[in-house]
Amino acid sequence: MLADRIKSIPSSPTLSITAKAKAMKAAGIDVASLAAGEPDFDTPEHIKEAAIKAVKEGFTKYTPVGGILELKEAVINFMELEYGLKYDPEEVLVACGGKQALYNLFQVILNPGDGVIIPAPYWVSYPPMVLLAGGKPVIVQTDEKDGFKLKPETLKSHLSPWTKAIIINSPSNPTGSVYTKKDLEALAEVLAGKNIWIISDDVYHKIILKDEVCWASIATVSPEIKEKTLIVNAVSKTYSMTGWRIGFLIGNKEIIKAATKLQSQSTSNPSSIAQKAAVAALNGPQDFLTTWVDVFKKRAQRLLGLLKEVPGVSCFEPEGAFYAFPCMKKYFNGDSLKLAEYLLEEAKVAVVPGIAFGQDGFVRLSFATSLATIEEALKRMKTFLEMLT
Ligand code: GLU
Fold first, then answer.
1. DSSP-derived secondary structure letter, 356
2. N or C: which end of the chain has fewer CB within 10 A?
């Protein structure tokens, strides 16, 4: 009945596990969930007010497909402040979340068989999106001892005449690793002079957990690399606006024009109301971000401290985003799906199995939740795993 295209991909595991944990809670089961990939803070008041104003003023009709100029200008200003890079409105597309920005991008750059280099562990939706566009995901494993970062020599050995693009996600979902400017320069050296698009997924760039870690974008390495780089960012994680669905694609004019054309035939513009809210987010006060990041830092430390008490578990210390990605190979012979299932059914703790991110033997723990939930989840996990040892 269904097309091969849709049969070839799974549902998003991050969304489905989060939904399952919510459903269990709604059914009265006391689940401690570390599954959700979204900040637990409320969207700031001034952003909500901007949306209410938009509704009251009747800003409720179609907007230009690729977003209102006011928002594109706010994005351009944000790019100058955050990245030190200049862009024109024709180089910006406003999409329904970072997810649609990426989806559109793959649809407009990939021909059948084109390869996209995806360093693993990767965000769950990259390979299915590439497949849906007819491309070929080229999964390249990284090592925990390298901070889960792609090394230039590994990148070099995976390039082929079919390589069309590479994805760099820093800070990374799920590992929390952050590429330094030096790391990016080394990768850029391999990519210089080649016809390969660099997709920089920066949706967590404002959430840096270590004072000594300095976030950088590969687009800033050189003017040539900037021309090859397509930046994906969003208001979702930075401003706790996951439900508003506003993301951006920034870069090459031809690609932005094509992605806008695709959007014109699929969703039309992103919500007019959410666009006004995003303008307020980008142009408004930013001071609350420091408080939020401090909260994430404290939770990360507590989570890492508690993980040390769990037998047979080691964890890379996340440098950004709000996830920890502990190695739990010792359990269930490294079958992370089985481990996650048992943790949910027996210990009532929701986690996302590492296999969903292309790395079995690990699980993803989100600390975008209260300290009380983190403590309860880790207590249950420890008790359950101790029984197995
Ligand atoms: N990006 C978040 C996560 O990884 C939200 C869910 C999704 O879109 O995958 O959990």
1. G
2. N
Per run of 10 residues, the mean pLDDT along the chain (length 389 residues) is 94 91 94 95 98 98 98 98 98 98 98 97 98 98 97 98 98 98 98 97 98 97 98 98 98 98 98 98 97 98 97 96 98 96 96 97 98 98 93
Q: Answer whether 124 contacts ligand 1 (Cβ < 6 A).
A: yes
For the chain, what is the radius of gyration of the CA atoms? 21
Instruction: Return the ∠ at Cα 226 (arms to 199 and 127), rounded to 5°.
Output: 5
With b for 16 or more beta-carbon neighbours within 10 A and e for fewer, the 217-244 pattern comes to: bbbbbeeebbebbbbbbbbbbbbbbbeb
Element (DSSP H or E) covering residue 301: helix 288-308
- Per the listing, tokens 């990519």 go with 191
Residues contacting residue 256 through CB under 8 Å, at least 6 positions apart: 66, 90, 91, 92, 93, 249, 250
Q: Which pLDDT value is given to residue 389? A: 79
The predicted pLDDT at position 111 comes to: 98
Question: Which residue CA neighbors atom 10 of ligand 1 most closely?
Answer: 37
Alpha carbon distance 207, 346 (integer Å): 33
Cβ–Cβ < 8 Å for 331, 388: yes
On whether the CB atoms of residues 247 and 234 are closer than 8 A, the answer is: yes
Domains of the chain: 4-43+288-386 (3.90.1150.10), 61-283 (3.40.640.10)
Give pTM, 2 decimals: 0.97
Is 100 close to ligand 1, i.e. is its CB under 6 Å away? no
User: Ligand 1: which residue has its CA nearest to atom 5?
Assistant: 37
Question: Backbone phi, then psi, for 20, in 5-degree steps?
Answer: -65, -45
Name the helix (H) or strand (E) containing 166: strand 163-169
Q: Which two tokens stand for residue 94?
A: 């406003």
Going from the C-alpha of 150 to that of each of 33, 140, 175, 193, 235, the distances in angstroms are: 30, 8, 13, 19, 27
